[in-house]
Design goal:
It is a single chain. Helices cover 7% and strands 39% of the residues. By secondary structure, it is mainly beta. 34% of the residues are buried. It folds into 2 domains: 54 residues, no CATH class; 370 residues, Neuraminidase. This is KIB1-4 beta-propeller domain-containing protein. InterPro entries: F-box_BR-signaling, KIB1-4_b-propeller.
Length: 429
């Protein structure tokens, strides 16, 4: 029995606007939300173009590109992002990035820096194409504490080296006039901050000991700087009283990084051990079936520990606190239950934490690590010359599993120093 066209219901127009809005508010994934709005014009009109209800998204891995190709007119501005959970390479046309280095990412924004000694610095949202200009590093920066009339610090020399900014964070939404933005310049161990619209950067006067610097962050009114075995803390409102916290002996020989999560700021401690042939076979996961390697190759196996930072910002001192109470002012406590945490680890201090309960496809107590394979010069999938290939491995935090789940997804362009492969959380806000 044939059904005449007039008997088909046009659900796009029959559904009340309130029902369409209620359905759109149930969508959690940005890609699903884009598909929802693409169904028809009534659905697109009933849903917000910049939804605020979406949880922090599952990250995409941003593949490094060669910023100097713009000088020979070879750069078309197409940037590659690998969506691990859909096993798909996404291409975004971002002409704003041509000739600039993408150094770091945070909350859906990319930090872009000109190759000419930091003459241009700005934040870019790749989805909305919104841009927030930041002060240039060609202007001498002032210091957070000390004589405000003293000559500014000249930071131009550090930009003789590329990709020296390894971290960016900000305190609130960028539309907030009081939003404080922090960048960490690894080359000079410098932590710099500004507000949107400031004419120049302010250098936070915290300096590590003569030890390799690990990472830096801004959280809840405080600047944190990790160096080997030591954590330096400066409160923005009380910069004259810097705090030095000496870490426990078992953390001194670990690689340490700072990680922002729902419950606060954490220290990630990484321990390396050797991987042998007895390791478990690759993940049996439908999301990674096409790219999963059978078994685990020999090499370095990593285990991870999470420690939450407890810092009393309300504790007051008449002057510099005596050394014997430094440990009491800031403390690290190991987190034993990480079942709700999935961590994405990139290169050069790029860590992203996602709440596992928000996503059916995530299991807690694990990490996804982006890394390069052994050197194998050749051409990548787009026919461009490259040195190594990027892969992604799944790791249980306790080290009981370690498998490659996405193998040779893209080639690394020949850049020195190399650009970081970083996890980027897409966001419309």
């Amino acid at each position: 029995m044939e059904v005449s066209p007039c008997e088909f219901r046009d659900w796009a127009h029959l559904l009340p606007t309130e029902i369409v809005q209620a359905i759109s508010n149930k969508v959690k994934s940005i890609t699903d939300y884009v598909r929802f709005r693409a169904v028809c014009s009534p659905w697109r009109s009933a849903s917000l173009p910049k939804p605020a209800h979406l949880p922090p998204q599952l990250p995409w891995l941003m593949i490094p590109y060669k910023p100097w190709e713009s000088h020979s007119n070879k750069d078309d501005g197409i940037r590659l992002f690998y969506d691990l959970f859909e096993s798909k390479m996404r291409k975004l046309h971002l002409p704003e990035t041509i000739g600039l280095m993408c150094c770091a990412s945070y909350r859906g924004w990319l930090l872009l820096v000109a190759t000419t000694k930091g003459a241009e610095v700005f934040l870019l949202n790749p989805l909305t194409r919104a841009r927030v200009d930041l002060p240039s590093f060609t202007t001498p920066v002032r210091r957070l504490r000390g004589d405000s009339s003293a000559p500014g610090y000249d930071a131009r020399w550090v930009f003789n080296y590329n990709f020296v900014i390894t971290r960016v964070t900000f305190s609130s939404d960028l539309t907030d006039p009081n939003c404080l933005i922090m960048v960490f310049v690894e080359r000079c161990w410098g932590v710099f901050c500004c507000r949107v619209g400031d004419p120049r950067w302010t250098m936070v006067n915290i300096r590590p000991t003569n030890a390799p610097t690990g990472d830096a962050a801004y959280y809840n009114g405080c600047f944190y700087l990790l160096s080997k075995g030591v954590m330096h803390i400066t409160e923005f409102d009380k910069p004259e009283i810097p705090i030095t916290c000496f870490l426990e002996d078992n953390l001194r020989d670990s690689n340490l990084f700072l990680l922002e999560g729902k419950s606060g700021l954490h220290v990630v401690a990484i321990h390396d051990t050797e991987v042998g042939d007895e390791e478990e076979p690759g993940l049996d996961d439908e999301h990674h079936a096409d790219n999963t390697t059978e078994g685990t190759e020999k090499g370095i196996k990593q285990t991870f520990e999470l420690h939450q930072i407890y810092h009393d910002t309300n504790k007051k001192y008449a002057g510099q606190p005596p050394p014997e109470i430094l440990r009491l002012h800031s403390d690290l406590k190991k987190i034993t239950d990480t079942s709700n945490s999935t961590i994405f680890c990139g290169e050069k201090h790029h860590f992203v934490a996602v709440c596992s309960d928000d996503w059916d496809s995530l299991n807690g107590d694990c990490m996804y690590i982006a890394h390069k394979n052994e050197p194998s010069p050749g051409k990548d999938h787009d026919g461009k010359y490259c040195h190594n290939y990027y892969s992604i491995s799944f790791v249980k935090i306790d080290g009981t599993k370690y498998q490659t789940v996405a193998f040779e997804i893209a080639g690394e362009p020949p850049i020195w120093p190399p650009a970081p492969a970083m996890w980027f959380q897409p966001s419309y806000v």
